[in-house]
Design brief:
The structure holds two protein chains of two kinds. By secondary structure, chain A is of the alpha+beta class. Chain A is built from four helices and nine strands; from the N terminus they run βαββαββαββαββ. Chain B has three domains: 170 residues, 3-Layer(aba) Sandwich (Rossmann fold), CATH 3.40.50.970; 163 residues, 3-Layer(aba) Sandwich (Rossmann fold); 178 residues, 3-Layer(aba) Sandwich (Rossmann fold), CATH 3.40.50. Chain B is 37% helix and 16% strand. Chain B contains 23 helices and 20 strands. In chain B, the strands form four sheets. Chain B has a six-stranded parallel β-sheet, sandwiched between helices. In chain B, strands 11-10-9-12-13-14 form a six-stranded parallel β-sheet, sandwiched between helices. Chain B has a six-stranded parallel β-sheet with strand order 16-15-17-18-20-19, sandwiched between helices. In chain B, helix 4 packs parallel to helix 5 and helix 11 runs parallel beside helix 15. Classes of the chains: A alpha+beta, B alpha/beta. Chains A and B meet through helix 1 and helix 2 of A and loops of B.
Chain lengths: 163, 580
């Protein structure tokens, strides 16, 4: 099952490598990983999307907690949470396809943020499934390039993750 | 007021002269009470060596290869409960030490490794003797640091000692660029460390402890299985008290030997791949299993699916949460410091009565009656087991025994009965050949006057043989018990059992004359090829308290270690000597 794990980690050189190293050394899978400093510049927040049985996820969180630079670990998928990912997708948009492509972007609440004679670059935000759906909905031959940030996640309501 | 005061800081500043990074390193080691550093000099650490030279509190032991430095620091720590410290230069100095660091990591040994690094401005430019020390060691240390600023040096070293010794212990590396050792700053050795990201659990959960004790009180077929954690946490007294209070049977892992007295009637011997029949059977058939500071690894319980076939309740005490339910699901996990948890157990058990377990003991004695460690005592060739039995007799069970890796290691574990913790020193997790001799050097220095023997084989000893030279320089009277069967015995045994007797590359031709070799290094060597000479040779060697004596025993070439659980098989699927 897919899990989304949030990690607060000291903002130190090598911290990211320690975490990704633990996943690869122990054979755990990473679907996506995002990281950036938080409002407290001494700390970074990482979101890792991984797949595994409950046993495996328990092992992952224990191993993460064991890393000396890791301040806190939460499996967001254990409770209500919000997940967002951003995608930039460049599509063919010549005279013929232009209208359709714009409409499609609107349906998914995407925004065209760049255009040329025969391309659009669309920005789309949502959970992973929505981005997948958008890609599926397009004529595959019209997709020129995609780049996704990987998911970021946060707990719903009063659920707060801090050091 | 002319000068606003902030406590004593103004005064401190006036008093504190600026020190170079190299001076700070030595002052930190002094402040930590380090008496020995094992190391090897080189370009990046010259300033640190210069400061070592100028003082005499921290003594340096010059090894002959950095692997030896790491193993010696490791053996020093294992035999004394102090932190092992080693100092190596950048590049090859560090990479040579990696095997020793990984060995310590696998067995959770508290060590601090100081490595030199090229100057900060040269890092990343493929400088001479540059390697990414922090990157290379990351997977085999508890934590590591690169110190880029001399102002961080003292705090980083303090943190290294703190991390190495708290929670589940382990090696910590501090990589120090050469320019940092010449830069100056004020020196204050911090007294405490506070890290928001590192707060190991100490106290076990009271509710869980109550649950565990309840299970122990209800157990009809209890079994206790203790590992290296008991030794590392100095929990042997509490463990013994618990065992005496309950009368339960107990087994030790390879790492746990000495955690419980080896001659005690409740002790069933080591368990696992080469464990005793009675230990392995009791593990499988117990109804409540108390695991203490052990990690259910593959060499211990064999195939977890087979282990799960018999239902039992499992209580697991460990300082490291990630060790719990890793390979085997447990019912009552207790994360905490073992001595404290066991003391709480004892408190709760005081007024309660455990079940009558006579029938269980009767069953265990029946298993024990198989005498699974028997071997041919009338053989005309020297049996390796015989050498170890005699070693035990001659040393009165009082020696510190280090070992290398292979058959000799297993026989030492089976036949030498360890009454006390920290007397059995071997590379259990990583299985590092070459560990025994340098580890013995560390053990000698940590335990002045103690008898230290290194049980080894002709293959293992050749992996860190150069340390015979270090032994000469520092007059380290290690007794080397070389069980020489001219084979990599354990490899040969697997090839005999599982590879159709094809002894691929496990026979070693052109072995050195070990007697002459020992003499070449300035030591004594003795060749023993008859069973009748074994005991006299040992007695003679151990009389020579000040000398290193290399005893080269020519042993039965085809002897195997029994019992044996083949890889991937269940804990009760043992091959016994009588089966063959």
């Amino acid at each position: 099952m897919k899990h989304i794990i949030s990690i607060l980690v000291e903002n130190e050189a090598g911290a990211l490598s320690r975490i990704s190293n633990m996943f690869s050394a122990r054979g755990y899978n990473i679907e996506s990983l995002t990281v950036a400093p938080t409002e407290d510049a001494s700390m970074s927040r990482m979101t890792v999307v991984t797949k595994g049985s409950d046993d495996v996820i328990e092992k992952i969180t224990k191993q993460l907690n064991k890393l000396v630079e890791v301040v806190k670990v939460v499996d967001l998928s254990e409770a209500e949470h919000i997940e967002r990912e951003m995608m930039l997708i460049k599509v063919r948009a010549g005279a013929k396809e232009r209208e359709d492509m714009k409409r499609m972007a609107d349906i998914f609440r995407g925004r065209v943020i760049d255009a040329s004679d025969n391309t659009y670059t669309i920005e789309l935000t949502g959970d992973g499934a929505k981005l997948d759906a958008f890609i599926q909905a397009l004529d595959q031959s019209a997709i020129l390039e995609t780049v996704r940030t990987g998911a970021s996640g946060i707990g719903r309501g009063n659920r707060i993750l801090r050091a | 007021m002319l000068f606003p005061t902030q406590g004593n800081t103004v005064m401190d500043r006036i008093k504190t002269a600026e020190l170079t990074g190299a001076e700070i390193v030595i002052r930190c080691l002094q402040a930590e009470g380090v008496d020995y550093v094992f190391g090897y000099p080189g370009g990046a650490v010259l300033w640190i060596y210069d400061e070592l030279f100028k003082q005499d509190k921290v003594r340096h032991v010059l090894v002959r290869h950095e692997q030896g430095a790491a193993h010696a620091a490791d053996g020093y720590s294992r035999s004394s409960h102090k932190v092992g410290v080693c100092l190596v230069t950048s590049g090859p100095g560090l990479t040579n030490a990696v095997t020793g660091i990984a060995t310590a990591y696998m067995d959770s040994i508290p060590m601090v490794i100081l490595s030199g690094q090229v100057p900060t401005h040269a890092i990343g430019e493929d400088a001479f003797q540059e390697c990414d020390a922090v990157g290379i060691t990351r997977p085999c240390v508890k934590h590591n640091f690169l110190v880029r600023d001399v102002k961080d040096l003292a705090m980083t070293i303090k943190k290294a000692f703190h991390i190495a010794t708290t929670g589940r212990p382990g090696p910590v590396l501090v990589d120090i660029p050469k320019d940092v050792t010449t830069h100056k700053c004020e020196f204050h050795y911090p007294e405490t460390v506070s890290m928001r990201s590192y707060n190991p659990v100490k106290k076990g959960h009271t509710g869980q402890i109550k649950k565990a004790v309840q299970l122990l009180l209800e157990a009809k077929r209890p079994m206790v299985y203790s590992g290296g954690g008991v030794v590392l946490a100095n929990a042997a007294p509490q463990l013994k008290a618990l065992m005496k209070r309950t009368g339960f049977p107990i087994t030790n892992t390879l790492m746990g030997l000495g955690g419980y007295p080896g001659t005690d009637a409740q002790f069933l011997g080591m368990l696992g791949m080469h464990g005793t029949y009675e230990s392995n059977m009791a593990m499988q058939h117990c109804d409540v299993l108390l695991a203490i500071g052990a990690r259910f690894d593959d060499r211990v319980i064999g195939n977890p699916a087979h282990f799960a076939q018999n239902p039992r309740k499992i209580i697991h005490i460990d300082i490291d949460p990630s060790s719990i339910s890793k390979r085997v699901k447990v019912d009552v996990p207790i994360v905490g410091n073992i001595p404290d948890v066991l003391s709480e157990f004892l408190g709760l058990l005081e007024k309660s009565k455990t079940q009558d377990i006579k029938a269980w003991w009767k069953q265990i004695e029946e298993w024990r009656g198989k005498d699974c460690l028997k071997y041919d005592r009338n053989a005309k060739v020297i049996k390796p087991q015989f050498v170890l039995e005699k070693l035990y007799e001659v040393t009165g069970g009082e020696a510190i025994i280090t070992s290398d890796v292979g058959q000799h290691q297993m026989w030492a574990a089976q036949f030498y009965k360890f009454e006390q913790p920290r007397r059995w020193i071997n590379s259990g997790g990583l299985g590092t050949m070459g560990f025994g001799l340098p580890a013995a050097m560390g053990a000698v220095l940590a335990n002045p006057g103690a008898t230290v023997a290194c049980v080894t084989g002709e293959s293992s000893i050749q992996m860190c043989l150069q340390e015979l030279s270090t032994c000469k320089q520092y007059r380290l009277p290690v007794k080397i018990i070389n069980l020489n069967n001219k084979y990599m015995g354990m490899v040969r045994q697997w090839q005999q059992f599982f590879h159709g007797n094809r002894y691929s590359e496990s026979y070693m031709d052109a072995l050195p004359d070990f007697v002459k070799l020992a003499e070449g290094y300035g030591h004594s060597g003795v060749l023993i090829d008859k069973p009748a000479d074994v005991e006299p040779a040992l007695r003679e060697a151990f009389k020579r308290k000040k000398d290193l004596v290399f005893l080269d025993f020519l042993t039965d070439q085809t002897e195997n270690v029994y019992p044996m659980i083949p890889g991937g098989k269940g804990i009760t699927e043992m091959i016994l000597s009588e089966d063959l």
